[in-house]
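User: Could you check the structure of this?
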Amino acid sequence: MEIKKSKEITALLESRNIRDEELIEVILHGENTGQKFYHPETGRYLAYERLGQATYYVLYSVQESQYTVHSAYWYKSELS
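Assistant: Sure, the predicted structure tokens are below.
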């Protein structure tokens, strides 16, 4: 899978310690399972997946077979 990011998004994701491998895993999970949200006005998707002890969210768009990442974040939470 090929992902595309702007220089600004690359810097943002580096500051958040989010690697390309994690982005790809979350996007593939959303595409393969349908566990994603679609925003019709922007044409973007929000996919999510729990990786380890954190839940990752990736905002992306698809054009042909190319995935453009617009943002991503993660959070770690524990329920007791």
